[in-house]
Amino acid sequence: MARDPRFDILFEPVKIGPVTARNRFYQVPHCSGMGYRYPNAEAQLRGMKAEGGWAVVSTQEAEIHPTSDLTPANEARLWDDGDLPALAAVTERIHAHGSLAAIQLVHNGLHVANRFSRMIPLAPSHAITDSLDPVQARAMDKADIADMRRWYRNAAVRAKRAGFDIVYLYAGHDMSVLQHFLSRRHNDRGDEYGGSFENRLRLFREIIDDTREAIGDSCALAVRLAVDELMGPSGITSEGEGKDIITALAELPDLWDVNLSDWSNDSQTARFAEEGYQEPYIRFVKSVTSKPVVGVGRYTSPDSMVRVVRQGILDFIGAARPSIADPYLPKKIEDGRIDDIRECIGCNICTSGDNTNVPMRCTQNPTIGEEWRKGWHPEIIARAVSPEPALVIGGGPAGLEAARGLAERGVDVVLAEGGNEWGGRVARECRLPGLATWGRVRDWRIGQLSTRVNAELYLQSPLSADDVLQYAIPHVAIATGARWRTDGVGRTHRTPLEFLAEGNVVSPDALLSEGAKAVPADGPVVVFDDDCFYMGSVLAELLAKAGRAVIFVTPESQVSPWSKNTLEQGRVQRRLIDLDVEIITANALGGRTKERLDLSCIYSGKTWSVDCTTLVPVTARLPDETLWLALKAREDEWADAGIKTVTRLGDCLAPGLIAAAVYSGHQYARTYQEQADVDQVPFRREDIARLIGQCPA
Ligand code: ADP
Ligand code: SF4
Q: Which ligand is nearest to the Cα of residue 567, counting in written order?
């Protein structure tokens, strides 16, 4: 198909100093959880973006010196020449597809505790580091400043040798020494590097000049700057010093990459921000510089992209998450395949990879992070050599992805869903406050399946073991999902709590199907959250917005602690506070009467009680195994019925993230006729231990 001419503007080449980007699609620096520790995976990941049409593909932050050591995070590293081959592999993969390779140099200043190198962190002024480690950074003296400038220069030279076309200086996310020097909060120096605006800007200016000299005139220089820290006057603001910095340095770099700080403000989830949420802060930038500007805002709609270019807000459409959810986004626009774009849902499961120091995963794109170790391509799934038909039961994320993948492999696939809508848990969860975009997990897959003649889709088709045996389809996938427990069993209480039945208990599933009306209007409702991710707080929000008096009880020390990994924890807690939800932390369940709930302090065991007419336990889930167990009990009939394999997928095998269900469905689609060898590691590894003997003694 041809490209829609209204998107032509997105495919104009744009000059960035001495280099030219072939279009306006720009993958800004983003963490991958791979970095120096999984260099092959990293190279393959970035190469995939280039293949998918992103004209510029950037690394994640690259630590320039062992005093900038983010261990155990897996970032890029450029401490010495030994780091060059891994980075050269990245540029090679990017160049192979005609894109420009960018590297984001960073010294993390007081952001790091240098856990691995054990070197003293460096900062403009004496300061405790950002992590909870009992580590302080020391104030840099003039010799340290000279060292810092040299380290940046050395790193820039190395970056060029590794083949990068664009070298970034990073002053964003409150994670960089350059931003620390700029910040009044971090810099209370009395010399020419502190105090006045010009003084705080001095090091940045010097390092821009040094870098320019180091990279010469064949490589472009980019600056990534936090224009607003969303802290009001105690931080950088887009109306104050954010604007002053760009005005002062306007023509020095070849490109401005502008965003919000810190990372949780920059990468806001759909629960808290809409597409384009950074525009109010970054729209001034082009009025103070003639250099091209890139910014982000979770843009997945080509119409929005055209708008921001036409309105003169941005020259490049920057993307991290939209490029993770769909590395082929630019190509799909170019080929006129808009409906094929796998839109990011803004859930930040991707950031949880970096935050837990493992290769990233994505709810929408199950192939991310698997490009090298499993050889998975986001767009290509090999046709089955002799495809045998498959029956997929359950139309949630696991079943939908399994059916989609199978259909794409040329398999005749039947998808049966017992309910009257597609999407399973996604259909239910996307009706919760702030989670509407999660429906894209269903919509994209249904859209893809509807174009396949070899896929038959049936709603309102609850299948029994008899049905399955009668259909005689050789491969059967059971993706029947899971249900929330109501007996209190979870992380904290490992055995059922008989006393819960003394009062009214409403399961999260009832709230998911019926909304807040599942909970009687009278008296306070306690949401007991032992799940620790989003569900507890979203249900509390739903109930509070419906006017219920809500008490949120958790054994943890804060609301939704795992949502720190999705950069949401602060906003989640604040939202409940704003909704007047009473928050009780560090308490478990201790007993129950009709009107009262006993709580027990997890440290002292001391019990006390709160009013409670309804309890919503958000604890653990149990797989819906009814069909599986019924079929398993009749395994001796399978062969006669022509059934070769029966496989459980997604939540029906083990309840988990939506991302895990999609991954499970995808894995099945790729391997449904193969017998897994469970004694083998199911992916390639590049662990350091395997390199013993290859490093100098
Ligand atoms: P997952 O996350 O693993 O995809 P979900 O809970 O989202 O699981 O989806 C499971 C789907 O399976 C639900 O939509 C449910 O209605 C459907 N389902 C459950 N049992 C049957 C059955 N016996 N026949 C057909 N569909 C079923
Ligand atoms: Fe988007 Fe979620 Fe995928 Fe991240 S994990 S890219 S936020 S869909």
A: 2
